[in-house]
């Protein structure tokens, strides 16, 4: 990936460090969470940036689907990294890449992935624990942090905790288990924590209070509004794969409408052709 490696040379490396520092700062503005409508390709990243986003986050699900793979550590690492490089080349704002479980089986492999993500121009990653033990995941986070330190980039490492998303452990002890993982992962080098599957205010308030690190939540229809989450102390709000899923829903509705009623209302409101083209000319 020659084009990706060029990001770390000379003035570009300094610019990348500045973007990394900016991404960190965006997580520490009281009452103003970092808002991320996750992208999955260059066009969606440019649309997100043009709409005013302060950063671009990739969606592991959206990226996998767009490249012909299911979500869930099935995508080939090289293909995933090529996409990160294209997005980072295309936008001016900081890019954080969802690398699922690290796109590797071992902690050493996670370090290699993170080094490649930085070489591709990104300044943040999401790293999920899934069904791994907290001790194993802490080792993977430490390897990721070490790789970033060696690259000289203050990577924003967002540690995703899947206790609620996957229903891990007994429900009665899930909050305590999650908080324990939060402490372990921050201690291993995570910059912040991401707990998808939780939107109730009481639990979120407890998570915010438990660890001195930014909390990221996954939001969608039915979730508390941004203002309410901000008041609880949430530092980052992501839409995850929902934006890509909504785009694919339009494709399905348009196809079904075309094949049944023979009409075309499903594509009303599309971004104009010339407007999309102009995003690629800057």
From TrEMBL:
One of its GO terms (molecular function) is lyase activity. Pfam families: PEP_mutase. It comes from the Bacteria. InterPro entries: ICL/PEPM, Pyrv/PenolPyrv_kinase-like_dom, Pyrv_kinase-like_dom_sf. The keyword Lyase applies. Keywords: Lyase. SUPFAM superfamilies: Phosphoenolpyruvate/pyruvate domain. Gene3D superfamilies: 6.10.250.2750, Phosphoenolpyruvate-binding domains. The keyword Lyase applies. This is 2-methylisocitrate lyase-like PEP mutase family enzyme. The lineage of its organism: Bacteria, Bacillati, Actinomycetota, Actinomycetes, Kitasatosporales.
């Amino acid at each position: 990936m020659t084009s990706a490696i060029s990001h770390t040379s000379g003035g570009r490396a300094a610019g990348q460090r500045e973007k990394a520092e900016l991404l960190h700062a965006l997580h520490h503005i009281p009452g103003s969470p970092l808002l991320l409508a996750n992208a999955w390709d260059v066009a969606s990243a440019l649309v997100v940036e043009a709409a005013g986003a302060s950063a671009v986050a990739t969606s592991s699900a959206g990226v996998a689907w767009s490249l012909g793979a299911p979500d869930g550590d099935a995508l080939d690492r090289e293909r995933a990294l090529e996409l990160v490089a294209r997005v980072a080349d295309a936008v001016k704002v900081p890019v954080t890449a969802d690398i699922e479980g690290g796109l590797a089986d071992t902690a050493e492999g996670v370090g290699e992935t993170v080094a490649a993500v930085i070489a591709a121009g990104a300044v943040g990653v999401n790293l999920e624990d899934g069904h791994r033990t907290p001790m194993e995941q802490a080792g993977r986070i430490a390897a990721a942090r070490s790789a970033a330190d060696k690259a000289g980039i203050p990577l924003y490492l967002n540690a995703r905790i899947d206790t609620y998303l996957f229903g891990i452990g007994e429900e009665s002890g899930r909050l305590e288990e999650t908080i324990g993982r939060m402490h372990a992962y921050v201690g291993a080098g995570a910059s912040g924590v991401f707990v998808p599957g939780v939107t109730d205010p009481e639990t979120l308030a407890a998570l915010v209070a438990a660890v001195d690190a930014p909390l990221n939540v996954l939001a969608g229809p039915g979730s508390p509004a941004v203002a309410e989450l901000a008041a609880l102390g949430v530092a980052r709000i992501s839409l995850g794969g929902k934006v890509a899923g909504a785009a694919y829903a339009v494709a399905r509705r348009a196809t079904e409408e075309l094949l049944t009623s023979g009409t075309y209302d499903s594509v009303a409101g599309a971004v104009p052709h010339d407007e999309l083209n102009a995003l690629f000319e800057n």
